[in-house]
Here is the input.
Amino acid sequence: MKKIDALTFYELLEIASDASPFEIHHAYKEMFQLYHEDSLASYSFFSREEREEILAKVNEAYSTLMDEKKRSQYDQYLIEQGVLEEEMQYQGDRKKLSLMPLAKRPGADTALRIRERLKMVVSSNAMIQEILAHDALSGSDLKKIRDELGVSLEEIAETVKVRMTYLRAIEEDQFEKAPSRIFLKGFVRAYAQYIGLDADMVASRYLKRMNN
Amino acid sequence: MPHIWPIGGGKGGTGKSFFTGNIGILLARLGFKTLLIDADLGGPNLHTIVGLPNPAISLSDFLNKRVATLQETVLQMPIHNLFLISGAKNKLDIANLAHEQKTKTLRAISKLAYDYILLDLGTGTSFNTIDFFTLSDSGIFVCIPEPTSIENVYRLVRSVYVRKIRQVLKNERFRSLAEKAEARDEDAIIHHPEYLLDMLKEMDPEEGSNIERILKAFQFKLVLNQVRRQDNPKIGALICRIVEKHLGLKIQFLGNVSFDDRVHEAVCRRESFVEKYSYSQAALDLRLVLKGITGMIDQQVAAL
Here is the structure.
């Protein structure tokens, strides 16, 4: 890394050049935790002078970037120095909000990874394959597969946002508990998808058995 | 080649031997052939932690040439796959190994045929401790959330890193560049290793980057032990941030291990903690830490 003096305020606070005041404040609090005089984490790491120098610079960065006018002056200076590009500046409220794509939403990533992992287990587990070989699937079949995979009902309910009562009803074949047939199908699909099964195939076989 | 993990922490009483012993037991339980070496030459007690009060043979038998090879000092532990080279019965002046003995020992260790070799290192920043650390690219520091321990860990981290840099710069290829750098700023190596790299890269971009690459392979790991409920759980991560930011050195935080009174009890009874209290928070924490080091998959750890 560069010497402290050589860092821009943005680099010093470890934030992007278009960070919002909220992000700046948060970053400042973290830096303060690292460098303040009684910080346990950096105890003895810096000499008193080094610590004072860093803190002064952090404070200066914070007070400059939190002040709209001072910040735009500072940005202007950075642009003249050639270290900041104009379009990388903070745009204030003008910054457009964009909808996060599904896979980028917090949590979605882990659910995807869990599904990928379970899919692998499903395809290599003899007992599960044996159950899936049948033409119709009952609630207890699904429960057996879920138990074999070591997935809890709570975990499914939490992630796919379907109430425990309904999930339990699916496994106990208590079809009357679901609000409607359409809902039931949706719940079975969500359940199956979460544990790495082919959602359409499971739902159709489950409903087929129900109809009989 | 075995995985060699030197384990140190600078200060006494942070739980290095506790950590080494119990992580060793977990590794052995996972089916890895694991050797624990008590390299705390001045104050050995790893044998007590793993429940072997009177070891018949120890590292000093190798150092004093009573046995021909280091392998002959290895003791089989009651736990399958777990082995120990004890430091008990070392001569009292052994803490300061002669250079020749040291190189001989270091060379012998890296030739042993085990999956994992865990080195329980002594306190302080003596040359012995630091040399054992540079034996591997992945040293583990055990620290507790107290200023005294943190102070010593920082000191040890710096000492080991400076030693590593010196070792690399001693290389014939880099010598002239190193001399030039030293002439320009004589205490850069000791006080500002991160600037040193910048300086080297500026003077000779190609060789500078080569040196940087070698040093980047050198990675530390940190465990925070004896973390009590009232402690700030983020301290460990913050320490790593300081080291990465201001020394330019990679260090991975492995996690907190909870304080547990039963550790004291287990040590007093000379029983191994993870076996006796395998469902305590501290034992669960140790498993998570191990997972962090080896990148093991969940199932294996759950099967412990």
Summary: The CA atoms of residues 13 and 158 of chain A lie 36 Å apart. Chain A touches chain B at residues 1-3, 33-34, 39-46 (CB under 8 Å).
